[in-house]
Design brief:
The protein has helices at about 5-15, 75-90, 115, 120-130, 135-155, 175-180, 185-285, 290-295; strands at about 25-30, 30-35, 35-45, 50-60, 90-100, 105-110. With about 300 residues, it is α+β, with helices and mostly antiparallel strands.
Amino acid sequence: MNGKIEMRILSLLTVLGIAIFFGSQANSETPENSEGFTSIEKTEATNNSGKFSLTEMTKLRENVISTAENHTGPQTAQALMKTFDKIYNHNYLTTTVTVTVYRKTDSGTILKNVDARYPRAAWLQLLLDNGITIENFGEYASYLSKRYTLAFLKDNSNLRNPVMIHIPPTDDWETYQRIIKGNNWELYKAAFIYKLVNRHIEKIREAAERAERRKEKVEQGKEQAERAKVLAEQAKERAEQAKVLAERAKNRSNSQQLENVRKQLENARKQIEHLQETLERLKKSMPPQSPKQNMKKKPSTIQI
């Protein structure tokens, strides 16, 4: 098989971004125990042949992932190492890689020689050159631990499977079979790195979607607040209108009462006038009194 075909496969992987997944999923856990802090990353994939899984378990002396300061400097290997290396060197203990292929499980703990096989600065720069960014200690430790997974797979060619790292089948079936048989390590390694890049892009996309959803919620909140403000203004206007109507009703009620009193007084005046007229008529109709009737009788005196 000539190099042109392999370059074509590499180009295809680059374009696809290892985007074809066979029902794959990745998750991570960070359990703490009495011996230190363990970070677990597990990738699972399935196809018609069965299930594959790759578990990477990194043990730290203590949990510094959530307490270490973030990196705010330039995205270069030297700058990242200056920020995180001291913490990493003090806390890193071991990395154990477990691979399950068609129910066959194998695992290994890599304790040394990784820095010699995949020098830290060169490895970080390779990831940065492919578009990966590292901003916190959790990401730094995770990406450095990928060197242990790569070393384990290189030493165990029988456990390499393109499905596990999301290499899609191609028309070049012979080259694909060479990958399955572990005879094309450089292509497998390239696909492994592109898998990391693709996962990083996916995380950025998910973060952007979450930010967009938060933005939409904020905008919705603003709209709801604006609507509430309008409703409050409308309620205030209705309250003012109700106050005016109540004042008018009060005024109408007072006016009605005054009108009733005026009518009663008018009726009373008319009744008084009527009585006066009646008395005048009676006075005129009565005969005049005699002088004798007007004389007063002297009271009798009784002496004892």
